[in-house]
Amino acid sequence: MNRGVVHGIAAYVLWGLLPIYWKWIDDVPALEILSHRIVWSLVFCVALVLLLRRFKWMSELRRSPRTLIASAGATLLLSFNWGLYIWAVNSGHIIETSLGYFINPLINVALGVLVLKEHLRRAQWAAILLAAVGVIYLSVVSGQPPWISLALGVSFAFYGLLKKQAKHWKG
Predict the structure, then answer these.
(1) Residues 49, 157, 95, 16: is their CA dihedral positive or negative?
(2) What's the gap between Cα 50 and its chain centre?
């Protein structure tokens, strides 16, 4: 089997098991969990940058304030997304979080078409329509507006958009 497929399957399995981990530590406030995630990720990334001597990106950020602003915005969106995700899982809204990540690709496509001027083929539109019908159905049968799902989907989609645009603004 292709290594990429194996890595993809492993990532989805781990992502699917992550709510179990959050529930094990649900007595810890979501903001504290998020803070630990941010601090320890920073420590790990700084160590990795120093170890690999990858400093070029810092000068690219200094030369392009627009890229720096986009990266800072993406950081805030991702922090919000993760904080909401952790809180929602620990508060018993696991189905809503799942729906949020089903909604996310639909918002990604909408942003691609509306903001990035991407064009979809007929079969892609059909797939989007089918996915949208499924999301609408799941939202209706839940019996309440999917606010958590929408906030997760929208914040992650705009995070992705900012990261994608930041790559084009370099230098």
Answers:
(1) negative
(2) 26
Could you say which residues of the chain have pLDDT below 70? 168-171
Q: Are 114 and 66 in contact (CB under 8 A)?
A: no
Query: Which residues contact residue 146 at a Cβ distance below 8 angstroms, ignoring those fewer than 6 apart?
Result: 96, 99, 100, 103, 139
CB atoms near residue 143 (< 10 Å) = 6
Tokens of 75: 């950081």
Q: How many CA atoms lie within 13 A of 36 on its CB side?
A: 8
- pTM equals 0.83
CA dist., res. 108 & res. 171, Å (int): 26
Distance CA 125, CA 130 (A): 9
Digit-coded pLDDT (tens) for 105-127? 999 999 999 999 999 999 999 99
Rounded Cα distance, 92 and 25, in Å: 13
DSSP H stretches of helix in 54-146? 56-63, 65-90, 94-114, 122-142
- What value, to the nearest 5°, has the Cα angle with vertex 120 and ends 74 and 95? 55
Residues with Cβ within 8 Å of 101's Cβ and at least 6 positions away in sequence, in order, are 152, 153, 156
